Amino acid sequence: MKTLKQIIAGTLVAGLALGAGCETSTSERIPPKSQDPNNVEIYAAWPEDGSEGHYINRGNTKYGVVWHMNCGQRANYNATLVPNSTYSVNVRYSNDGGSEIVSILYNNNSIGRFETQNTRTAGTNPGDGWINFNSSQTFTMNTGSESNNTIALYVYSGDPYGVDIDKISVVKK
Ligand SMILES: [Ca+2]
Would you tell me which CATH number, out of the four given (3.40.50.300, 3.30.499.10, 3.40.109.10, 2.60.120.260), belongs to the domain 35-172? Predict the structure, then answer.
């Protein structure tokens, strides 16, 4: 017969095991740490706290996950960059159906906006286009004196189905 102490210990172990199970699924989403400040790939599924949108598992991406954003939503990403430098920035996205206008902000200042194209191939079914990715045009971004910066995406306008963001590429010229 188990003592009360053994029962409590068993419950604790079960609780830890449950926690470990949750931890495993969380660890699959640990953000990649590829932070060469000359060539930063920001994977959109790992935004800063308080960002709007949600992640979705999606093929044709490096980590199998995207960040989905609807009209009016904003997602923020911290990046370590070389101060007082010029970068090229573009965004890889998929968009099944109607367009969005997405603004890219550097420390809250717009560096440009792009229109999402329909990534559904002609003749395929609605929804099939989410696994096809396009890149936006490339924008120029000049960094200031700080090495810690925030790059944000804001969906300025769009259809009811939003846009999936894979990554933001930030490459020093
Ligand atoms: Ca859309």
Answer: 2.60.120.260
| Distance from residue 68's CA to the centre of ligand 1 (Å) | 10
**Do the Cβ atoms of 60 and 23 come closer than 8 Å?**
no
* 89 neighbors 111 (Cβ within 8 angstroms): yes
Q: Please tell me the pTM assigned to this model.
A: 0.82
Residue 168 CA to ligand 1 center (angstroms) comes to 18
pLDDT digits (tens, 9 = 90+) for 59-84: 999 989 999 999 999 999 999 999 99
Distance 6 CA to ligand 1 centre (A): 56
Q: How many Å is the Cα radius of gyration of the chain?
A: 20
Phi-psi region of 127 (alpha: psi -120 to 50; beta: other; left: phi over 0): left
8 A C-beta contact, residue 41 and residue 113: no
